[in-house]
Amino acid sequence: MERGARAVALLGLVVAVSGCFQRQAAPLKNFEPEAFDSTANYSRHYETAPAQACEAARRALLSQGYVLSAASGEQVTGRKFFQPNAEVHVPLEMRVVCAPEGEDSAIVFAVAVQEVHAVRKSNNSASLGVGGLGSLSLPIEGGNDGMVKVGTQTVSDPRFYGSFFDLLGEHLEP
């Protein structure tokens, strides 16, 4: 009988492992392949020095409630936090790089990356083992809630970047 139980356990293990190899990754949804064309969602040209452009970017982010983690004459990084419901938390990080382009002009690159964190519950269990008889594992009611990162995505909406660059331009005006 013990030999039969081992055979059944081994067969179950083989089926479980083979199932792991047969599964294919789910296709990506809303995936936008890279085009690398001349449409510039992520950059704009300004007739100003790069340091002034980055200062305008800093002011634009601050005016919209971003918390700045870095700011210099060459780049600005800020984060803003959203919580669409009690179980989801979405930090949005915006990075802006200001580079010289010719005399007294700058090209400003901006990219926003959002992460999605969700509440995950982890149940606890307790095990009791008695020599010769085996072990018993029982779930304990309750558990711990924790935020787990479930996704990261670069924001690609041209309206988002358009509104940012328009606000940056307003902060450049005298």
Note the main attributes of this structure.
disordered N terminus, 6 strands, elongated, about 170 residues, alpha+beta, 6-stranded antiparallel sheet, 3 helices, TATA-Binding Protein
Count of alpha and pi helical runs = 3
Mean pLDDT: 79
Q: How would you classify the helix and strand content by structural class?
A: alpha+beta
- Count the domains: 1
Overall, the morphology is elongated
N-C termini distance: 89 Å
CATH topology: TATA-Binding Protein
Uncertain spans, ≥5 residues at pLDDT below 50? 3-26
Biggest beta-sheet profile: 6 strands, antiparallel
Order of helices and strands: HEHEEEEEH
Helix content: 25-40%
Radius of gyration: 26 Å
Number of extended strands? 6
What is the CATH C-level name?
A: Alpha Beta
Q: What is the CATH homology-level superfamily? A: Kinase associated domain 1, KA1
